[in-house]
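Two proteins follow. First one:
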Amino acid sequence: MIDLGLLAVFVVVSFALWREGLWAAMIMLLNLLFAASFATAWYEAVVALVRPSLASYDYLLDSLCLWGLFAIILLVLREATDRVSRTKVRFRRPVEMFGCPLVAAIAAWIMVCFTAASLHTAAVPRDLVQPTPEARMFFGLAPDRRWLQWVRGSSRAGPFARPDHAFDRDARFIIDYANRRKQLEGLPDLRVATP
């Protein structure tokens, strides 16, 4: 079921960007890459800020902060790039016909990778995301692992570097969140503590 959902994400994003043309697809590719990378590398800091006031929703905070940060950054970037790039660059027909589907597919793959990695933070039963932490998602292509490798590398010495520590330094993201979802299964309801 997860694989079909990720396939739907790939098809919808690639089709939407393909219809916008090569120039818009290239801009959106950069926006998606930046927003998803920044959100993944820094969502834990946002969780640390809001956790004291929303402690009873502990299992929901990671997913909500990750997607909230991604959405806000993507909206701001989209607005900024739309204002800066008011003139659509036209490409020759062969370049447009070949480049647009390619760029749209790359952007869709980035969205699939980010979505797959974010599923690990969701407050759902452990086996719903993956039968085991070692299993590979999306027909064995493992986009979640690819995305985590990208963010791990870019948060060590890249544009998303964190001065205090790199994202997922010990490469335990998937295992830690699988254990966390297993703990959630044992709770009577989603709220950890009543106010």
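Second one, unrelated to the first:
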Amino acid sequence: MSETPAVIDIDLDRSSPVPLYFQISEPIARAITSGTLAPGTRLEDELSMSRRLNISRPTARQALQRLVDRGLLTRRRGVGTIVAPAHVHRPMELTSLHSDLVKAGHSVTTVVINYSEHPASEEEAEHLEVATDTPIVSITRLRLTDDEPIALMHNLIPADIAPSREELESKGLYDLLREHHVSPNNARQTISARNATAKEAEILDDKRGVALLSAQRTSYDNTGRVIEYGDHIYRASRYTFETMLFSQ
């Protein structure tokens, strides 16, 4: 990331009915979508912008916030306003998020927030289709792409096939299961939308109530055994599911 904030030339028409914040945000948006401003580029702050363009600070703040709301900019404490990473488009296939991101050319980091082996509760046993008190592993991971939090993932796995905490910090779950001679064969998945809680927003470095994609997945091997249950949330501003549809 450049030490000197990027500045986009903007010509304002103060006689136009188009709001000034819109006249400011659109040239910046075009520079981002065209690649002129690369992901990670730091922009001038609202105070600098207001002085340079001779506008009020609230107008500059509104222009930048519009771009944040569109997912084109992000604000980081102690860093400033930067161009957001490219939106992640993920195919609807039985693959791990880690593998999909690596294949798409992103740098990937995984933080294992929780790793716990314990007897399955009644609810956990129901998810994994096992008897209550069966040994299972519960894991919670934060996935970052290009140093930007993108997903918070909670998984339940039978203890006899669960990868270690250290393994999960470096590879995707499905890749590790295959290394353990467990082959994901099919899955049942439900995708919905909801708003982030205060705790989720803090972990994902976003604002409270921001839109999230939520996915619950139960995966099976070729014998019909449940090999993992996942309850994942994704930042909707950074993440999209894609699927192919066929006529019959």
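SUMMARY FIELD: Helices lie at 20-33, 46-53, 57-69, 97-103, 122-128, 165-168, 173-179, 198-203. The two ends are 50 Å apart (CA to CA).
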